[in-house]
Amino acid sequence: MSRHLLKIRVNGQEHEAKVESRLLLVDFLREQLGLTGTHVGCDTTHCGACTVLLDGVSVKSCTLLAIQADGREVLTVEGLSREGKMHPIQEAFWNHHALQCGFCTPGMLMSALFLLSENPLPNEDEIRRGIAGNLCRCTGYQFIVDAIFELAKGQRVSER
Amino acid sequence: MSERLIGKGVRRKEDPDVLLGRATYTADVKLSRMTYAAIYRSVYAHARLRKVDMSRALALPGVIFGLSGADLPAFVKPMSLSPYGASSGHVIWGERAPREKRSGPQTKYFPHLCLARDKVRFVGEPVAAVVATDPYVAEDALDFIEAEFDSLPPVTSVEQAVSHNAPLIYEEWGDNVQLRFKVSGGDVERAFEQADLIVKETIISSRYTGTPIEPRVVIGRYKEEDNLLEVWDSTQRSHSVSMFVRNSIDLPGLLVRVITLRVGGGFGQKRGFYSEEVLIPLLSILTRRPVKWVETRSEHMVGTSHARQQTHKMEAAVKKDGTVLALRDRIMADLGVAYPTSGTMSVINTVMYVPGAYRIQNYEGELFGVTTNKTVYGSHRAFGKADAGYAIERFMDVIAAELAMDPAELRLKNFIQPHEFPYLSVTGSRYDSGNYPKALTHTLGLGNYEMWREEQRRGWREGRYLGIGVTLVIEPNSASKPGAYNAGHYGVRIQMDPTGSITVFLAGNDEGQGHGTVVAQLVADELEVDFARVRTVEGDSLLCPFGSGSYSARFSVVGTSAVILASQRLKEKLLRIGAYVLGVGADEVRVARGGVEVTGDPSRRLSYEMIAEMAYFEVRRLPEGVEPGLEVLYYYIDPNLRAPGLKTVPDERGRFAAYSAFPYAANVAVVEVDVETGRVKLLEYASTDDCGRIINPKEVVGQYMGAFAHGLGGAFYEELVYDEAGQPLVQNFKDYLVPTALEVPRIKLDHMETPNPFTPGGFKGASETGAVGPTPTLANAVEDALRPLGVALKKIPLAPSVVWEAIHKAKEGSR
Questions:
Q1: CA neighbor of B602 nearest in space, from B578, B580, B619
Q2: Pairing of strands A13-20, A3-10
Q3: pLDDT tens across B729-764, in order?
Q4: CA proximity to A108, closest of A83, A85, A139, A86
Q5: Which residues of A touch B132 (CB under 8 A)?
Q6: Is B736 helix (H, G, I), strand (E, B) or coil?
Q7: How close is the nearest chain A Cα to the Cα of B708, in Å?
Q8: What ipTM, to 2 d.p.?
Q9: d(CA B130, CA B132)
Q10: What pTM was estimated for this model as a whole?
Q11: Which residues of B fall within a CB distance of 8 Å from A81?
């Protein structure tokens, strides 16, 4: 099994590690960096619990090799808050009761962030499309959609 | 602090850690010297297991241990459904009475071990395990295990299982019927003689389940120096699992501690019990290393319980005016293998609640739980009552059609009336309270029923097929089956520490329901403390009072009752100490603003911190007869257990009071069916849900919506399909269609609060009604839409292909 030198920036911090070619990005984040906020919910790329941003684009980290992220930048759920202060998307989820068991939530947050970065003022259908790759079994999605709506409107108001 | 928190949609305490990515789920646990297990599973549905050769797997660098069924040490015992052990035979009831004396369910048992021996009986059955220092290597090692199977003819349906000369899955049993149970009440024969009309129908539902997004995880660590086996388990019931493991790993003096951290959804699939809950801890004993097993989704689809699949042959004795005099139901449930999950209990619930919301006092229910070569049947939202709700609500529409009667009218005619509560059902349950006519009438308004009937008539003239489904489903819950080992009580320990902070230890588990928030609301209201200073601990079998876990929404009913009453006892102690130190009578003080004050003179007060200091450090200042410390342990008993006239074990006709709280929901669904493609569009869905007094309205709506998505999935998308060789065709999320944000619509949801008269809080427990309602309501709506074409929809899920085929079959004149 060949090993490669991985140089990667995660949540603003540089890391270097020797990794097996077959190491999945999600396992690198969880096991080697201890960033267990990103979750694994399936093995066929369907559930989206492992969603992170790679150079600002949402990806399913269970279907990327860590080495594919060499020289690139990853944002995980742990990187959203600043000095313990929640990102507006996290506040919105909290306000709207958009989580119950929480297992799909980190992936939802990252997908929501990516959706809003591409489309700051989505309508309901666009929001639902944007999170269609994130399965949830607890919430029925309604409050998640409400939370994303609130953030979208907030962005318009604050001109972010 | 003086504003009451019960009834408020407060933000949850559980959420920040999740949102910040620092909540710990079981797969996140890292232990020193931890190793990883992978499980080799049968790819045959039915076969003799001849040999398992692990030598090549063990030779892989990084693999440290391997185990197959043949190598299990003698101290490993067969798995039992009851924590009391396998010897009790009819383990679901935990009763000790001899089999012949019981009129209850007759259930057969098989002493399965945690790894297969001699025979495999379903695809996915654990055959062997490997342990390695790296999880990828453990998975690699599976490819190097060689096992020899002689395949046997599989049994893949209930019809086949009970047919003449069917292969026997358990030769010892002599047949393939695991469970037989009959319950009856009234005089069914006479009622059928008096009928103006007899209506018959067969209602079939498919096999599906809940697939929580977090698969199962088990970690075992054996501490030899303490003879302590620690098991981290994503389970719904930590204490029960600790006993299950203890019974299955019979080492003298062994203490089993089960620790449950955050659980990513349960829905019944994490009630267990499962082979891995024994196997993984066993591996940690045999290797003297911590062993972690993380279920893959593919494993989950075969290794974690299935549910729902039932056939109901129903008959009703009906009068011309719509009165349903009597019901008969012959139920066949496809239970898969006889593994120790609670599938048998689930289907017993079904037969008990087929009469539903209706005052039908003549009933005969006959249940056959049949074993097949499939994954074990277990618990899934509403635990058998969803299946009863599906059957009766579909059947009521069949009856309405036969009578050419409006389905809402038929239901209103037959509902248990508000003045009849508490209502003793024909199967022996005491329904606590409710107003079914009001709920349905309100929902008809909310769902624009009259307007949609107009639209429907117009649509049929124009070649458009609109349909309306109307239901009212009950969801008996708070499983405190009298006489059963697993329930009837809820333990709480509430402790105020020397700083005045409060910790509440619960007997239950949390899979996302937000118990900590609810507990804080209750305690804050009772003791007038800051919501933020109340912490909850659950899921630890060593730290928490003994309990049977979380399922059946029982926390809302028995759990909250225990918390309220325990808080009141603590309050009494605080008031007693406060009164004494303030020099006034016990009736002259009250709690307020985080302390005890003289009523009417708030300047004379002691903060809880002051009282706590006395209780722990200055005990000489305590009144005579008052113990030091501020800690109350209290076990609440479900009122159902002590109510006069309620049977706690099945009587000679099989009747007993199985549940104690009865939330319900009325539903209206409007659909449009595209007859060219079979696609169904949902135009309207309205519900009125009554879960008694509401604790946290945001949580109630959130849970209802989540449950709704499960019910919707059952109606249109979810099915666990097996082929004739017993091979599961649905093995992952590619084939198993979990509804996404695009499939789950917004719905109209209103609430009614008919308090539960038998509990301190008046709560009934919420969330499962949402899972029960949609499936029959939507099926009724689709069938209603296609009525002009004479289409009968015989099974769910109603995938476009299923609807399309039914339409074309009807068009060709065959039914």
A1: B578
A2: antiparallel
A3: 999 999 999 999 999 999 999 999 998 888 878 888
A4: A139
A5: none
A6: coil
A7: 7
A8: 0.97
A9: 7
A10: 0.95
A11: 20
